[in-house]
Structure formats: structure tokens, C-alpha cells
Amino acid sequence: MLTDQQLAEYRQTYENQGYALVRGFFRPEDLKPYQDAYLRMVQEKTGRAFTSMHDPELRDLFNQDRKLESEVYTAVRDLPEMLALASDGRMAEVLEQIVPGHDWRLLEKMIMRIDMPEWTEEIAHWHQDHFYVKGNTEIVTVWIPLQNVFHENGCLLVAPRSHKMGVVEHSHMIGKRHTPEEDLLQRLDTTEVPMQFGDILLFNALLFHAGQLNTSDHIRYSFQFRYTPAGMPTDASMGRVLEMRRSALS
Hints:
7-stranded antiparallel sheet, 4-stranded antiparallel sheet, alpha+beta, 13 strands, Jelly Rolls
């Protein structure tokens, strides 16, 4: 439960900075059903059992077979446990409390990033989610790490207050990634957001943010769930607009 003072601080931070870091939102047991489902799915694909999502043998297997890692990345979106977590009443509640004034809905396209140690191809360079998600500018991303995240394993970078710049053109390319021109990026005031397992980060679709290279020895996993106010435009690429449940996690 969040106190009135905490809620006021989170609301003010979200409005002024474009993001809010909610500490200790989940208990480890809240996320265990998804972790177990993920390991069952990986075992079905590989015929091998792993001790945890962070098992070094699983990391080594993905390093040996990048096609397998890509297949797992795609398959996790169909796990019912992922939908159950993203649409749970506690998620609706925290959105309504920190970004009030809307009836929140879940966008069907959900992602679990699998950031492998030293893999550079999929690093998320500086961008606004709005460029990829489109739809309306009130959309909120909820970013949930599945372990502690810090500089070495690639915690997020954010540019506080950059959401107040409005929609910015992403005309520069780094590999297959779109990003704004370098002169704009150099003007951003940026900071790292280290997080503990159980924390969640809410940020506006216009906030500039970026990933970092995972230089640790372990896979870094994170959820990306996106939420839109009911009745506002959304893009077909994000799938259906789903209702949220109103019962809290047990």
C-alpha cells in the first residue's frame, strides 16, 4: 500500500520529470508464476531443465544458438502468465493513483526483453516510445526488471523532463534503430535508474530513454507493458486494447 505522501511525491515526479520509480511494488512471489512458466516453456523448446532464468547454462545455450534466443523472445508473449501480470488489478490501481484522470487499458503487445551479456545488436538507443508505439501521447510504459539492475547489467538511462519537448522526429539511424539527431541528444540531461527486483518504473511515451550494454555475466530480463487511457487513439501494431482486472495480486 502506498501512503498519501508517497502518492503525492510519485504524481509530482511523474508530471515534472516524466517518470516515477516505485520501490518494492512487487514481492518476489508475485513474479514467480511467470518465472516458472518461462522455464517450463524453455524446457519444452530445448528438452533441458534450468535452475532459474539466470542459469549460466541457459546463457551459454543462447550464446551458442541465437536463433533459439529469438524464438524464446517471441514465444514468451503468448504465456498466459504474462497477460495475467500485465492486466492485474494492482497495475490498474498504481496507474490510476500516479497518473490520475484516466480509465486505463492494456495494449495487447507485451514484451519481455532478453538482454544478453555483451550483445550489441538489440541495444535500445535514445528514443521516445511514441515513435514506435504511436497512438496517443498519454500512453504509459511500465518497465519491470526481473532481477536487480545497475550499471554493469544495463539499467535504463532516462532524460528527466524531456517529455515536455513533445513529439520529436527520429530521423537518424543506428543500425536498425531510429533515434533523434545527435545535436539534440547532446543537449539532454541524463541519469541512470538503478532498480531492485520488485521495483517498477512508469514513464510517459514522450520521455527520452535508452538501454545500456549488459557487461555482466548474466542475462538481464525486463518486462515492457504499455497502457493507454480508454477511448484515446492507439496504433494497430500494438494489438487490441484490453480491459484491466480490478482484483489485486494474491
